[in-house]
Structures are given as C-alpha cells and as structure tokens.
Amino acid sequence: MHKATIVLLSIGTFGFLVSAGAIYTGIGQQQEVWEREADELGKDFWTGKTPATFEGELSFTSFYPVFIEETRDADVTLVGGDEESRFVSCVENNWCGKGFTEGSVDYRLLGIVQVMETDEWKVRFSGDVTGGSEVVIREAEIMGGGVTVIAMGCFGSVASCMAIFVGVLLAFTLKGDKGGTNRVVYTPQSVS
Fold first, then answer.
1. Which residues contact 50 (CB under 8 A, 6 or more apart)?
2. How many whole angstroms separate alpha carbon 83 and alpha carbon 87?
3. Listed residue (108, 107, 139) closest to 123, CA to CA
4. For residue 148, what is the enclosing H or E element?
5. Do 118 and 29 contact (CB within 8 A), yes or no?
6. Would you call 59 helix, strand, or coil by DSSP?
7. pLDDT digits (tens, 9 = 90+) for 161-190
8. Beta-carbon neighbour count of residue 134 at 10 Å?
9. 62 close to 140: Cβ distance less than 8 angstroms
C-alpha cells in the first residue's frame, strides 16, 4: 500500500476512535447537567409579588420553573407565546409535587415557562384572592458543556470518516511501489 494511503487510514481510524470517546463523554456530562437541573430546578432568576409582570430576556437554552407560596395560587401567562413558547402547567408534566423552601417560606411549583427563541419576553402573574403572593422564576440550563464536547466529537467523526474514505479511494487508485516485488530483467548478451 502507498504511504499516503496508510497515513490517511491510520489518522482516520484513530480520529474516529477519539471522536467516539468524546461523544460518549459529552453525553455523560450532559446527562449530569439535566439530572442536576431537574433536581434543583435551577437558580433564582426573578422574584415578585402578585399581581406582577416579569419583563426580560428568556433563552431557548434554558427552561424557567415558576413557583408561588405554598398556600397561594395565581394564573401565569407568557405574553406573545404560541404552541411552543408558552407556560406549561405542572399538571401537564407531572411535576406538581416539586418545591423548595427559602427562609421561612415554602414554595410550590406552578409550572414551567419554555421559549423556543431567545428574546425579550413578558410573564404575567394574575393576583389571587388575597393578593401579594410571593412568586419566583428560576432558570435551569438545558445545555451545558457536554453539548460542546458532543459537537466536537461529531465534527471529528465526520473528518475521520472523510480521511478513511480518501484513504480507501487512494488504495484503489494509486499505483506505486507496493514493496516486496523484485523483478529480474534478463538481457541477452551477444557473443563475439
């Protein structure tokens, strides 16, 4: 086999193995992020009292759990939302038992705000019967560092496959010293 073919096949195979390892590692890292965020339900992002309106940037790379004081209730609306960008009640995703305690106040989950594009959004909280209920929006990341590692692994896999493809192509098309072929050439000599 030609030296260029051997080099390309070797690099492609090694790169493919390294890329597969990167993808596997990235998936593990990302799984840890999802589990942590699902358990903790994010970090405090905004706090207010009903009736209130949050106005600010929400990112598609996060979801936003919405909490209210344990014994209170409020209606939550994502202003300008649609079928994909909206407030999802905890009843829809079976998370209603989740909550946290901050200071002496117990909070329960009302639902999650999800957006499909990063933009300025308004989240409106209606007042309840008593009014002045504490509401909290938290931010939980969907994408962590694992996504970057997965992306690099995928790019490496594609580059490695291209190197292997070119190596195989060269193996069938290059004509060169294949090593180990010894030719003996016989030339007749005249006797005078």
1. 68, 72, 74, 125, 126, 127, 128, 131, 132, 133, 135
2. 10
3. 139
4. helix 145-173
5. no
6. coil
7. 998 899 888 888 876 555 555 666 667 776
8. 17
9. yes
Give the list of residues 6+ apart from residue 39 with CB closer than 8 angstroms, or none. none
pTM > 0.70: no
> Per residue in 66-91, pLDDT tens?
999 888 888 899 999 899 999 999 88
Provide the 8-state DSSP code for 60.
T
Question: Which of 153, 189, 187, 171 lies closest to 8 in space, CA to CA?
Answer: 171
Cα–Cα nearest to 110, from 154, 162, 71, 161: 71
User: 139: Cβ–Cβ under 8 A, 6 or more apart, which residues?
Assistant: 42, 43, 45, 62, 64
Helix H, strand E, coil C: the string for 65-133 is: EEEEECCCCCCEEEECCCCCCEEEEHHHHCCCCCEEEECCEEEEEEEEEECCCCEEEEEEECCCCCCCC
Count CB neighbours of 78 within 10 A.
21
User: Which residues fall within 8 angstroms of residue 89, CB to CB, at 6 or more apart?
Assistant: 110, 111
Q: Which tokens is 49 given?
A: 């009292």
pLDDT, position 3: 84
Which strands make up the sheet holding 119-125, listed edge to edge?
A: 52-58, 119-125, 76-79
